[in-house]
Amino acid sequence: MNTAVDVPQAVLFEPVALVYGRPLEQLPQDLYIPPDALAVMLDAFEGPLDLLLYLIRKANVDILDIPMAPLTRQYLDYIESMRASNLELAADYLVMAAMLIEIKSRMLLPRPKLAGDEAAEDPRAELVRRLMEYEQMKIAGQKLNEQPQAGREFFWVETLVEKSLHVRLPEVSVDDLKEAWLAIIRQAGLKKHHKIAREELSVREHMGIILRALREHGGFVQFETLFAAEMGVPGLVVHFLAMLELAREKLIELTQSEAFQPIYVRVHSGGTEPGQEDS
Questions:
Q1: Cα 127 from Cα 53, distance rounded (Å)
Q2: What is the largest CA-CA distance in the chain?
C-alpha cells in the first residue's frame, strides 16, 4: 500500500544563504573555491625575532642558554608552512633561518683554545643580545599600549562658546592705581643723575696743618687727636699721607711705650715746617 506524503514547498526549497538580500535556494553548479581561499593563522608574529622569542618561551628554556638544535628545527618547520602559503612573507624569515643554521654548525665544531684563561666567544651571544633587546622593546610597547588613548578609552568633548559683542573691562581699584604710580616713581629714581665733584687736596698743605697742630699742643699729641671726622674719607686719607711724609722727612716722630698701647706724635728735634724748608 503506497501512501503519498505531501511535503511543503518551503521545506523543499529552503534558502541556504542570502545574496544581495535575495534568498539563494540552490548552490551554483560552476562554483569554484580555491584551496587557499581560507587560511587560518593561529599564531601571528611580527618578525623573525618575535617567532624565536615565542618558541623559546613556549619551550620554557633560558634565553641565555638556548638549545640550538630543537629551536632551529621548530623554526624551519614554521618557515616551510609559511613558504607553502606566502613566499614573499617568508623572505625576511629565511635570513634568520640561515643565521640559526650557521650558529648550530659553529656549535658542533670544536672551539679553538685561546691563550691564557680566556674563553672562546659563544656563537649564540649576538643572537641572545638581539632577543633580549627585542623583548625589552616589546614589553615597553605593551605598557605604552595599555595607557589610555583618545578615541579608544575616552573621547574629547568639544563645547561651543559664544563670544559676547560687549567687551567687559576689569575695574581698577585704588590700590592698583597706587602701585602703578609708585612703580613710575621708582623708575624715575633709577634714571636720576648724580654728579660727583672733584675735590683737590694737597698733601703739602696737610703737612703744615699737622705741624701747626703739634706746635699748638706743645709738640706732643696722641695720634687720634690729629684726625677729625669732618674731613671726610678723602681728607682723612690725604691727612694720613701727609703724616707719613713728615715722618719720612724726619720732621715728626711716631712713638709708642709698648705693644698695643696708644700711639703718640711729636715734633722731631730740630724739625721745621715745610714752608720754612721751602724758604
A1: 11
A2: 179
